[in-house]
Design a protein that fits this description.
Helix content: 25-40%
Distance between the termini: 55 Å
Largest sheet: 11 strands, mixed
Number of strands: 23
Structural class: alpha/beta
Strand content: 15-25%
């Protein structure tokens, strides 16, 4: 593809043209004929590697500041991250324009909401693609996910493959990082779902004010045609009051376009009567907890907006398995074991609150906090676990480059009562200890990793599974 074609809608360019065979953002990955895009990263600035990229075969470079004369075309833009997203879209023929896209953002509930939405669209007869934290799925393929939201080149490659596979709807999660890093520039969704906002990622964004502003920034005509927003969340109410695009609300406590009544916990999950934009449907499903009722309302509303019938929605939810690693319940020896991804203060609080409802005896909580991430949430999560559990086992959870003990110490600093706290920094042994300490009528909550298939420590990802270790400890 010609350089001039890649720059359509990106930058005015009347310089030397060049044949481009690929796109690279790392000089170490440049191949002959690639377009090298210089971006400022956390650990380095791509502009410093222009010469190395050209030496490796780059046919042109895109920059946001002066790099001097080069033997290949140099294209200057105001923002190379935005340019990268738009160029990637052009490279693959702008496939997102031919897809119906539903995006999901928020602190908690993104994966479940996206998963359920995709399954409901399938029940309505649509060919659906799913892009999220757990995996990417379309056309009979399930691929491991590298990030919640792929980088632009991978994202538009996925869009192109999905389009070629006959996908009509794409449901995708996107993180605050993806918004801030302009990964979705040039992609306008049909519906953007907002789940909630609570503390997370302050290691990156610094404070809640900035984190919230980033989340809110995607509810504009540039990024979506319609906002579908949780009106029970304070940030959601701000989005609804400020956005000028069409909007639909959902909730349980405040007046909303979609809401639920008669919400009940059942032996198999939960049941409720949903009013989806004035259409009434009874829901009986295998997803536990009030927090999941919010996720289900969002998914049902999005599916209804896409034309899926109420009967198809109710029938599919009745048989739908919970998403992997999201409040997955295993019963053994009279004990209920729950594996869940909860890794924020609000997520842990909701998990413990719902876990207590299942509990006739002790509530045992196993959790840790990730290394190289928001340190301030560690004592908060320690306080929540200590106050709401009968026994807490503090363990590791992707320590990355921090020591397991220092992370545990941060968690313990928030715990008021130490007499029911155990520290076992080996996560497998922590789960085995929880099994040993529990008895009939107890509930054991294993939080933080969900369906993750590794432990990330010292730049090495070692295969690991909470569910697998639990089954091993139970002898299953």
């Amino acid at each position: 593809m010609k350089l001039s074609q890649l720059l359509q809608g990106v930058a005015s360019y009347d310089g030397r043209d060049a044949e481009i065979t690929g796109i690279a953002t790392s000089s170490l990955k440049v191949k002959q004929g690639d377009l090298f895009i210089c971006m400022q990263g956390v650990n380095g600035d791509g502009h410093a590697y222009c010469d190395a990229a050209i030496a490796a075969g780059a046919a042109a470079v895109v920059v946001s500041r002066n790099v001097g004369n080069k033997p290949v075309p140099v294209v200057k833009v105001s923002d190379t991250r935005r340019a990268y997203a738009l160029i990637s879209s052009n490279y693959f023929g702008n496939p997102s324009a031919d897809l119906r896209i539903i995006t999901v953002t928020g602190t908690n509930g993104k994966s479940t909401t996206a998963y359920v939405t995709a399954k409901l669209l399938e029940a309505g007869g649509y060919n659906v693609g799913l892009i999220g934290t757990m995996y990417y799925e379309y056309g009979g393929k399930k691929l491991p996910s590298s990030l919640t939201t792929p980088d632009p080149y991978e994202l538009h490659s996925l869009f192109a493959d999905m389009k070629n596979a006959g996908v009509r709807y794409v449901v995708m999660e996107f993180s605050a990082h993806a918004i801030y890093l302009e990964k979705l520039c040039g992609v306008c969704s049909d519906i953007c779902i907002f789940t909630n906002l609570s503390q997370d990622h302050l290691d990156y964004f610094g404070d809640m004010k900035r984190y919230k502003a980033v989340k809110k920034s995607c509810f504009t005509a540039e990024y979506t045609r319609c906002a579908l927003v949780n009106v029970d969340d304070a940030c959601g109410r701000e989005i609804l009051s400020e956005c000028v695009i069409p909007s639909v609300s959902y909730g349980l406590e405040n007046p909303a376009d979609s809401f639920a009544i008669d919400v009940e916990d059942t032996a198999r999950g939960s049941s409720f009567v949903a009013n989806i934009m004035d259409d009434i449907v009874a829901i009986d499903c295998r997803l536990y907890g009030r927090f999941n009722v919010y996720n289900l309302l969002a998914a049902c509303t999005a599916a209804r907006m896409a034309g899926v019938g109420l009967a198809e929605i109710a029938d599919r939810l009745y048989t739908l398995d919970p998403p992997s690693g999201r409040f997955n319940v295993i019963e053994s020896g009279g004990v209920k074991y729950v594996v869940d991804f909860a890794h924020t203060p609000d997520g842990l609080y909701n998990l413990l609150k719902e876990g207590r409802k299942l509990c006739k005896g002790k509530l045992v909580t196993v959790f840790g906090c990730g290394g190289d991430r928001d340190v301030s949430k560690r004592p908060i999560m320690g306080k929540i676990a200590g106050e709401m559990s009968d026994i807490v086992i503090v363990t590791s959870d992707n320590p990355r480059t921090e020591s397991r003990q220092s992370i545990a110490d941060d968690i313990l600093s928030g715990v008021r009562k130490k007499n029911k706290i155990f520290v076992e920094l080996d996560r497998s042994r922590a789960i085995a200890l929880a099994v040993e300490l529990s008895g009939k009528g107890d509930v054991v909550l294993i939080a933080g990793k969900g369906s993750e298939s590794y432990i990330d420590e010292n730049n090495v990802k070692t295969p690991y599974s909470d569910s697998g270790e639990l089954n091993k400890a139970l002898g299953l």
